[in-house]
Write a structure and sequence with these properties.
Jelly Rolls; 140 residues; 5-stranded antiparallel beta sheet; alpha+beta; single chain
């Protein structure tokens, strides 16, 4: 069994859903050494999240942002955690709904994503800053 781990610092991105698959593949080229394994990507933040979805049509990412903004609105007077801005508490809620990690099988030295699948960074803050990911790969 081989285990590899890298920390990936992502550049600051605007609020929205961004495909980061290639950045993950580039940070841990050791994936190519594995016939069978698993890649786990974990985000070290509470106001951004990760998910896997369509990587071909950019309108899917726009619709994700629209859906989450409608269902987790800003400026809700019932939120108590509001001292970091109107986007902060909604960002925490969105992050919890989507999750802080994704796992992707490795098959024959490649991430075994489907034809139209990509890994998304889901940036829920207007100014979230750089984001750090821990990418861990293990297998044989």
């Amino acid at each position: 069994m081989k285990i590899f781990q890298q920390v990936l610092s992502l550049r600051e991105r605007r609020r929205g859903f961004h495909i980061i698959t290639e950045e993950i593949e580039n940070i841990i080229p050791e994936i190519a050494q594995l016939k069978l394994g698993l890649c786990q990507v974990f985000i070290q933040h509470t106001s951004a999240s990760l998910t896997i979805n369509e990587n071909a049509d950019p309108t899917v990412r726009i619709d994700f942002e629209t859906f989450f903004n409608k269902n987790v609105p800003e400026n809700d007077p019932d939120y108590e955690h509001d001292y970091e801005g109107s986007d902060d508490m909604p960002a925490h809620l969105k992050s919890s709904l989507l999750g802080s990690s994704v796992s992707i099988p490795i098959r024959n030295g490649r991430l075994a994503l489907g034809t139209w699948q990509g890994i998304y960074l889901c940036e829920h803050r207007n100014y979230g800053g750089q984001r750090k990911l821990v990418v861990t790969v293990w297998g044989e």
